[in-house]
Amino acid sequence: MATDASPQYRPVPPPPDFHPEISLSQSLTHDGLHFWQFMIAGSIAGSVEHMAMFPVDTLKTRMQALGASCSVQPVGVRQALCSILKLEGPSGLYRGIAAMGLGAGPAHAVYFSVYELAKQVLSRGEPNNSMAHAASGVVATVTSDAVFTPMDMVKQRLQLKSSPYKGVADCVRRVLMEEGIGTFYASYRTTVIMNAPFTAVHFATYEAAKRALMEVSPDTANDERLVVHATAGAFAGALAAAVTTPLDVVKTQLQCQGVCGCDRFSSSSIGNVVQTIVKKDGYRGLLRGWIPRMLFHAPAAAICWSAYEASKAFFQQLNSS
């Protein structure tokens, strides 16, 4: 009787951690969230942050753009606020908020999703790696600034006293026709150079402060999660804002050049703008608006991180159910 001479193959048992029911399209990134959920959480956080603090941002822009054409005495926060309320009413504090809404949501969606992906890659399984957090923040800000810079320029031009533009669409149309598309990115290099150290300081400080606060009372860390995120975010935002104020002044000058009496620069060189500011106002001119900048970024960061972590917690609960 003939026998079957073909080779016999034994089935190879699957590895113990193999789960065929999980496909690539269903796989989650770290923290148990999908990529699109990081984007939505970031978009919500950025929109809430900038909308809530917009009046303070208007004060900062007015103070930094003031005196571009001639040397003037520095204007305080109270003086700038009273001037706007007296001449323009409360609505003057919200001029340009539509441009902020159009830019902040998409930019922060990119910002936080890129940050989370970069942190996952660079930390290499070490959650307390401050250098990885800082580097991830830099990668995130370079990417998100490309999205946000055009609308930030429109927003700041609308915030100026006696702005010649009727609204977002009018500003975009006139800038394109009169100055060209490059004007929308005239401050991009300065913005990146400013936001790279800002974000590095911000993220590294936030992660370190959050970890330190949780270690103070680990038993109640989950119950006080929102307070921890808000406190760490506020501290990180204030410190990062103080360090980078001079570059923020340069950015404002570049974005508002040629409008409402602001100087027009021959190039977008940071050195050229700094020399002009120092020549007219001294080194104090580079610190113009530092108080409202810190007053903006401390609560803004607290709001942003709290909203972001709350959104992440919602999606984590949704995914686990």
TrEMBL record:
Describe its membrane topology. Multi-pass membrane protein
Q: Where in the cell is it found?
A: Mitochondrion membrane
GO BP terms in the entry:
iron import into the mitochondrion
Single GO molecular function = ferrous iron transmembrane transporter activity
* Keywords, sorted A to Z: Membrane, Mitochondrion, Repeat, Transmembrane, Transmembrane helix, Transport
Do you know which Gene3D superfamilies this protein is assigned to? Answer: Mitochondrial carrier domain
- Any GO CC annotation of this UniProt entry: mitochondrial membrane
Q: Which InterPro entries match?
A: MCP, MCP_dom_sf, MCP_transmembrane
Domain of life assignment: Eukaryota
Q: Which family does it belong to?
A: Belongs to the mitochondrial carrier (TC 2.A.29) family.
Write down what this protein is called.
Mitoferrin-like
Please report the organism this UniProt entry assigns to the protein.
Durio zibethinus
